[in-house]
Amino acid sequence: MLKIGFVGGGKMAQALAKGFIKAGLTKGEMIVASCLPSDKLSIKEMEAIGSKAVFTNAEVARHGDVLVIAVKPQAMKVVLPELKESMADGKKLLLSIAMGVSLGTLEKNLPSGTPVVRVMPNIPVVVGQGATVFVRGSHASQEHTEITRRLFSAVGLCEEVAESMMNPITALAGSGPAYVYMMIEALADGAVKMGLPRDLSYKLASQTVLGAGKMVMETNIHPGVLKDDVSSPAGSTITAIHALERNGFRGSLIEAIEAATMRCEDFKPYD
C-alpha cells in the first residue's frame, strides 16, 4: 500500500483520498494532508477518514511515497520552493493537479531527477466518476505511470495523453461539468414550464444525462447514430432537435470549448 501526502487538503484532495482508500490502494492512517489552521472543515474531513492533517508542506513532503499537489495554481510559487527544500533526494513520485503549470516548470523547480506526472482530474471524482488525463515527465518510469493509472482509475476514467492536449482537455473535461449542469438546469426549467414538478424534473434530467453518457461509453456507437435512433419521422425528438439547431446548440458548445481552450493558453500562473 502507498503512503500518500497531499499538499492541500481541500475538496479535490478529500475526494481523491476517499477514492484511493476505497480501492484498497492505501489506508486512512497512511495519508497526510497539509491544511491551513483556519480551514477547520478540511481538517475535520481528513481526520474523518483516519488521515492526519498537518500545517506545513515540508511535513507532507517527508511523509509520502507519492506526493499529490492539490493547491490552486497561484499557490505554486510558494509550494514548489518548499517542496524542493524538503525533497532533497528527488525520489518521491510527485503528481501535480495544478492547472496550467507545465511539466517543464515542475521539473525545473524540484530536485533534479524528480519523477513528475502532471494530472488533470475533473470534479466528478468526488462521486467516483471522474475523467482524468495525465502526462508523464522525463524522469517518470513505467512503474510511476502504472501507479498514476491505478490511483486515478479508482475515481473514474484515466487516460495518458500528450502535454499539448492539456488545454483543450481542460476546456472539455475540466470545465465540461459546468456546461452539463447548465444543460440539466435548462432541461428541468423547460419541463417545469410544461407542468412537471421541480424535483421530478431535476431527477429525470440528471438521469437522462447519466444514461445517455453510459450508452455512448458502453455501446461504443457514434452519438450521431444514437441520436438518430430516437428521432422518429415527424416526431417530437426531431422537432426538438430542429429547435436546438435553430438556436445554435452545437455551435455554442463548440465555441465554448474553443473559448475555454484559449483562456487556458493565456493562463500562465507561474510567469
Describe this structure in words.
The protein has 271 residues and is α/β, with parallel strands linked by helices. It has helices at residues 11-22, 40-48, 57-63, 76-86, 103-108, 142-153, 166-174, 176-193, 198-219, 223-229, 236-246, 249-266; strands spanning 4-7, 31-34, 52-54, 66-69, 93-96, 116-120, 130-136, 156-160. It has an 8-stranded mixed beta sheet with strand order 3-2-1-4-5-6-7-8, sandwiched between helices. Helix 7 packs across helix 12. The longest helix is centred in the last third of the chain and has 22 residues, at 198-219. The two termini are 37 Å apart. The model has no long low-confidence stretch (mean pLDDT 94).
Share in β-strands: 5-15%
Q: How many angstroms does the end-to-end distance come to? A: 37 Å
- SS-derived structural category: alpha/beta
The total of beta strands comes to: 8
| Strands in their spatial order, largest beta sheet | 3-2-1-4-5-6-7-8
Oligomer: single chain
Count of runs of 4 or more consecutive helical residues: 12
Helix content: 40-55%
Order of helices and strands: EHEHEHEHEHEEHEHHHHHH
- Sheet of most strands: 8 strands, mixed
Low-confidence stretches: none
Mean pLDDT: 94
Radius of gyration: 21 Å
Shape: elongated
